[in-house]
Amino acid sequence: MLKKLFAICLFLVLTTFSVAQEIRIEGSTTVGPIVDAFVEALQSDTEARFTVKKTGSGDGAAALIDGRCEIAAMSRFMKKEEYEKAVAAGRMPIPFTICMDGVCFIVHPSNTVRSLNKQQVTDIYTGKIKSWKELGGPDVPIVAISRDTSSGTYEVFHELAVGKAKLGNSVEYTNSNPQMFIRISTTPGAIGYVGIGFLQEGVATIKFENVVPNKESVANGTYPLSRPLYLFTNGYPKTGSALMKFCNFYLTEEGQEVITAKGFVPFTKY
Questions:
Q1: How far is Cα 153 from Cα 40, in angstroms, rounded to an integer?
Q2: Which DSSP category does 209 fall into?
Q3: Rounded to an integer, what distance in angstroms lies between the CA atom of residue 157 and that of residue 160?
Q4: Average pLDDT of 69-76?
Q5: Which helix or strand (DSSP H or E) is residue 231 part of?
Q6: Which residues lie closer than 8 Å to 69 by C-beta, 6 or more apart?
Q7: Is the pLDDT assigned to residue 205 strictly greater than 50?
Q8: At what angle do helices 80-88 and 57-66 cross, to 10 degrees?
Q9: What would the 3-class secondary structure string for 103-153 be?
Q10: Taking Cα atoms as reference points, which of 61, 65, 84, 64 lies closest to residue 74?
Q11: I need a surface site. Which of 15, 25, 135, 213 has the fewest CB within 10 A?
Q12: What is the distance between the alpha carbons of residues 224 and 212, in angstroms, rounded to a whole number?
């Protein structure tokens, strides 16, 4: 009799205090601020435990393929070879397109150059143009700074801004948008690029192909370096789960407000 009572009590304890779902998120430093804000907004409404790691879109894809995360935050779409690795590992990446972004060129505020075309950007990053004087600016050496090659922002820049040209040996690399911002804001000759949500005082924004990067030009598709941002999961999340709620939060009014507050471009206007 005592054994039966103990078994019943143990069953009640185990069913009442279930283990909270762990949702591990890895990937893009561009999508990072949105992910952090989503976690903050949803944490009190779910028993799930969230962890966020921001080291680059490529790292997020690798983590999802290896089963080290539930969500890969990415500022580019998964590559064909990443999908092939995922399928080989028994996984099926499912994308959620949460908002739009623009890759924006920035320079130090003291720089008078305010517009560049694709050829000029290519010549800067391949080392053909070495001084801002050649572009009508100050007689200051150009310090070209790029994101690291695991970054989705780098992928968009490399394909759309410089036509996949081989970058010069003098190009410096940073591993996050905040690091890029700090480097540009403290280096008079520097040029770099960040997601639109990272534009702020301390740097000057450059027109690209004579188009100003802002929410309007990204939303209407006239800015040439516009791109969507993604969350990827392994398979479609279970209906009603914390994972599903997180990945669909961008569709809610609150989620859209978060995206707008972070400086990005939501898909829906309420």
A1: 25
A2: T
A3: 5
A4: 97
A5: strand 226-234
A6: 24, 25, 26, 27, 53, 60, 63
A7: yes
A8: 20
A9: EEEEECCCCCCCEECHHHHHHHHHCCCCEHHHHCCCCCECEEEEECCCCHH
A10: 61
A11: 15
A12: 10
5-52 pLDDT, tens digit per residue, is 444 444 443 333 445 689 999 999 999 999 999 999 998 888 889 999
Distance of alpha carbon 261 from alpha carbon 191, whole angstroms? 26
**What is the C-alpha to C-alpha distance for residues 120 and 117, in angstroms, rounded to an integer?**
5
> Burial letters for 124-147: b for 16+ Cβ neighbours within 10 Å, e otherwise?
bbbeebeebeebebeebebbbbbb
Indicate the pTM of the whole model. 0.87
Residue type, 187: T
| Ranges of H-type helices in the chain | 2-16, 32-42, 57-66, 80-88, 118-126, 152-156, 177-185, 215-219, 242-247, 253-261
- Residue 39 identity: V
Length of the chain in terms of residues written: 270
Beta bridge partner(s), residue 111 = none
Helices 32-42 and 253-261 cross at an angle (nearest 10°) of 140
* CA quadruple 94, 99, 105, 107: dihedral sign: negative
Q: Which residues contact 56 (CB under 8 A, 6 or more apart)?
A: 27, 28, 29, 148, 150, 151, 152, 175
Q: What are phi and psi of 71, to 5 degrees?
A: -135, 130
Q: Which domains does the chain have, with CATH numbers?
A: 19-100+228-261 (3.40.190.10), 102-219 (3.40.190.10)
> Is the alpha carbon torsion for 237, 151, 224, 84 positive or negative?
negative
Residue 21 pLDDT: 82
CA 84 to chain centre: 22
Residue 267 C-beta-side C-alpha neighbours within 13 Å: 14
